[in-house]
Amino acid sequence: MAATSRYDRQLRVAGWGSQGEGRLEALRVLLVGIGGVGTRIAELLVRSGAGSLALLDGDAVSPTDLHRQSLYYPDDARSGAAKVEAALRELRRIEGRTRLAGSARPLTARNAAEELGREIDLVIDATDTLAARALINREAFLRGIPWIHTAAIASEYRCLAIVPAGSPCFACYVPKALPADAVPTCEVAGILPAAAAAAAALAMAEVHRYLTGAAAAEPGRRVLYRGDVLRASFVRSLLEPDPECPVCGPRALLDQREGQVVDGLQRLCGGDRWEAWLGISADLARRALAHHAAAGAPLERGMGFWRGRTPSESILLFDDNRVLYVGGEIAGADAGGRTHGDARREAVRGRLAAIFGGEALSSARVQ
Ligand SMILES: [Zn+2]
What we know:
Elements: H1 2-11, H2 17-26, E1 28-32, H3 36-48, E2 52-56, H4 74-79, H5 83-93, E3 99-103, H6 112-116, E4 122-125, H7 130-143, E5 147-153, E6 156-162, H8 170-173, H9 186-189, H10 193-212, E7 222-228, E8 233-239, E9 266-267, E10 273-277, H11 282-292, E11 300-301, E12 305-310, E13 313-318, E14 322-326, H12 338-356
Parallel strand pairs: 1-2, 1-4, 2-3, 4-5
Antiparallel strand pairs: 5-6, 6-7, 7-8, 9-10, 10-14, 11-12, 12-13, 13-14
Helix pairs in contact: 3-10
Bound molecules: zinc ion.
Residues 168-169, 171-172, 241-242, 245, 247-248 line the site of zinc ion.
């Protein structure tokens, strides 16, 4: 009876009802990215009772996340909690029917086939990089999995649902050869919570439309929503497939995964957080980290990672040999000044090299 009353107010909605409810209860979702947009989508999915939700995000909570990322609290930022850990803790408090899982790693060329190869019905992109979206697009296309693209930056938001076969894919839509740094980051352009919330609401609406079959009402075409919360603008346009598309077009090269260089040291959005991959064994990396962590402070075991601390930094070493360095530099201190940012990059690289050895930081290639 409790379950009936809990979902009663959505069951009553015309056009949704028990049929939509049954499909939602069976729906298995992979959510990539749990930042400003992703935390809100996760909460909407769990509160409305999606069947299962798997979270994928390799980042840790930063103080600059707190104004918009609805599942995190100052304690999480102070302790450098992995977002997946903190998000799962809050989502479990809802005590809904959704089965929850999570992995504290980012989507990369290394793991995209594995992550999208799981038993899922729908992928939601709440990431903030073109590279991650390109990976989702290709893997989803290969497997015939529908996915929903979202984005929010400054006062703008965007949402596009993509159903493989017969309708445009993400690569049809994104201008060709757009360099990764052409996309502004929230660290530079900022982001309003309303923009993130609008993107999340549209994505959840697309989940409803997908489950009721309303999304199939425009065969061969896809609806792109774009809006701006400061200008109060909202545009709905219909996209067509691009016959020259490198992913879904007839001359597409489907498997270009091999040989891609795994990301080197890169700064994550939201302050002094840096990510790198290590080319040494996981055991050796863990011992090196334990040796350099503060005296008397043993490594802490988290969800898929070891955490080592010193008074000024927190270093998360993941089981897949990714390392996340969280330092104490003030976020945005180098805004507009590349010199300081470059100097900081070299300082972090030097620190990681001192801990793990310089050769460990050399980029690895996907097998
Ligand atoms: Zn395409």
